[in-house]
Amino acid sequence: MFSSPTVRTSLIFLAIAVVGLFFADIAITTANPWQDLGNFFLGIVTPNFFSSEGLMTALLRTVAFAFVGVVSGGICGFLLALVYRFLPVRMFCAFIRAIHELFWALIFLQFFGFHPLTGVLAIAIPYAGIFAKVYSEILEEADPEPGRVLPPGTGNITAFLYARIPDCWVKMRTYTAYRLECGLRSSAILGFVGLPTLGFYLEASFSQGLYSDAGAMLILFYVLIATMPLWVRPKLLPIYVLGAPFFLGEGLPIVWGNVQRFFTEDIVPAPLRNGDGLTGLMPWLSDLMINEAMPGIWNTIVLTQIALVATGILSLLAFPLISNHFGGPIRRGAGHVLLVITRSTPEYILAYILLQLWGPSMLPAIVALALHNGGIIGHLIGRQTSSIELRSDTVQGFNRYSWELVPRVYRSFLAFLFYRWEIIMRETAILGILGIYTLGFYVDSAIQNIRFDRAMVLILVTALLNIGVDTLGRYIRRKLALQTMPTC
Amino acid sequence: MKGFNLLGLTASFGGKRVIGPLSLQVNPGDKIALVGKSGAGKSTLIRLIHERVNRESSLIPQDLGLVNALSVFHNVFMGQLDRHSTWYNTLTLARPFSKDREAVHSLLQSLGMTEKLWIPAASLSGGQRQRVAIARALYRNAPVLLADEPVSALDGPMANSVMTHLRDRFTTSVIALHDVELALNYCTRIVGIHDGQVALDRPSEHLSVSDIMSLY
User: Where are the transmembrane segments (chain A) (predicted)?
Assistant: First the structure.
């Protein structure tokens, strides 16, 4: 068994995570962590839906930002997909999707302020990069045969509309709908940087200890996501798409002077701005690299590797909860509810809640990342095992798990895990905004200190790190011949 | 139209030559049946000829080339996409014009499948799919027909009626057929392919089933 490349790869990653644990800062620093956790769960089971009228507005804004952001990202992504074969386009898309929605929001906040455009662009830009990649893959997989039998002389647009789009339509629609769900999560967490979506009210309720209010918000959010198949209907979509821009709220007007100042002064590296020229640039850059980028990169990598392995372990433990090879319908139903909750809650919100309860360290981040990503992979793998037909005289219980099921799904499990590696790293970096010393922490501090030049360099470093991990993940998946559909 | 003289056709697959070098003179009015064992290179030859005479031919490839998500009407209409402007084609995608509807409808009537005009090609049976590809080739109305086993999924009477249509509508044709009797009945010239070479080339009136069977 140890000679199998998949097992060997898993063990190497496990060893890296164990070594990482020695360097990681893991602690519970609050005085009464369990009491706080208890209060929080008490809040969830005693939700207060009527405390403030802001709740419904926040929900509406969350949906509106998600729609406008995802639809504009989808349109741009589709256009980019048509020219995706050109290397500069591919690099551009990889770059814009390597920067997290919250980082985009932090950037736009500096010059558009609290204008709705900030939230829309924060979702639309990274989503356009992702849509471009996935759409172009779907278009490439279309059956080429109908295109070959078209009469010669058929126009390019006609050929595309008849021989390409119909074959891809269902896949593109499914993926876009799925992305809309991701967009709702992205939209919700934009509230944490001050936009008027759910995160804003969640943070406000938490900071005042109003756990029942926070509980009500989370429950409404789950209901919103779980009922998506009911309210996102093809016939209603045009209404949503046309209506959504009118529900983004007024925000604050854009001050164009700020926009100009941001590009011509704020993001110009300080030594150049002060006229020190290139001689001043090197010390500035090396100071930034040694004191902020390096520690940020180190902590981001350590946290990512631990969270990745924790996600893997949790997925393997979680998938039997919904697999029809174990337990009856009641237990499976409960398992479904549990996994829907963990995968619908954005890691950022989970980490925020756990951080409030346990105090700042890497532990809340690891648990949050593992719960969310483990919920997603556990759900996908569990569903996959349900379609496996076992011979009728096969073993039961743990033997069935370890002999019949895990060996059959292990490759696709690894494929999903390595696919999510880059996503986990992107999230890890962003969790720094909550006070864990990953790259996001240094970006956020630089912005707090109004040193946007430093923040931009650090965001650039984060993007490059994500692109690096994405490339490595794809290399490993190719080496092990693992294939997967995209997840978010 | 003029006939066409195909000289030095070759094709390789994975470094191994599967066709030729092979030459074939196709005269106007020839109705050629390509016969031979499966794997002899008939499909490859049809594809090679199509590459040479693209513009003037209606093609029925073996895997049909249907767009599964589009309706039967649209799949047939695709045979004339080059004769309309982009906006006309785009409008047709959303809402076909009545004269096209009637034309496609009567064409499908002659192939015995009018009631299926608006259902997606994905939900058709094998024989129905094959008739949609045949209707597309007929609708295209090019002078030359290139077809690869066009009636393999049709039952006896239907196969005969379709072959009659193809014979009457196209003056010149090259059809790969594994059914030797159909080849003798509907084609004027039999070309036998063996190991990527022409092993037999005679008018069908001088041939009997047993002459052709020696190829197999």
Answer: 55-82, 102-129, 182-202, 214-232, 239-256, 297-322, 423-443, 455-476
Question: Residue B60 belongs to what H/E stretch?
Answer: strand B57-60
Chain B within 8 Å of A1 (Cβ-Cβ)? no
CATH number of A13-46+271-488: 1.10.3720.10
CB contact under 8 Å between A169 and B136, yes or no, is no
Shortest CA gap A150–chain B (Å): 7
Q: What is the pLDDT of residues A105-120, one digit of tens each?
A: 999 998 888 999 999 9
> Which has the closest alpha carbon to A97: A445, A426, A394, A350?
A426
CATH topology of domain B4-213: Rossmann fold (3.40.50)
Smallest CA–CA distance, residue B78 to chain A, in Å, is 7
Instruction: Identify whether the C-beta of residue A142 lies closer than 8 Å to the C-beta of residue A167.
Output: yes
> pLDDT tens digits, chain B, 216 residues: what are they?
567 777 777 777 777 777 778 888 888 888 899 888 877 788 888 888 888 887 778 889 888 889 888 899 999 999 888 888 889 998 998 889 999 999 999 999 988 887 888 888 888 888 899 999 999 999 988 888 999 999 888 888 889 999 998 998 898 999 998 888 888 889 988 888 887 778 888 887 777 777 777 777
Instruction: Collapse the DSSP code of A68 into the 3-class scheme (helix H, G, I; strand E, B; otherwise coil) and give the result.
Output: helix
Of B65, B67, B81, the CB nearest to A158: B81
Residues in A closer than 8 angstroms to B61, CB to CB, are: 145, 148-149
In whole angstroms, give the CA distance from residue A126 to residue A64: 17
The domain spans of chain B are: 4-213
Domain boundaries, chain A: 13-46+271-488, 56-266
The model's pLDDT over A468-479, given as tens digits with 9 standing for 90+, comes to 999 999 899 888
A205 vs chain B: nearest CA distance in angstroms? Answer: 49
pTM of the predicted protein model: 0.82
Instruction: For the domain covering A56-266, report its CATH number.
Output: 1.10.3720.10
3-class DSSP state of B69: coil
Give the pair of three-digit tokens for residue A314.
Answer: 């949790």
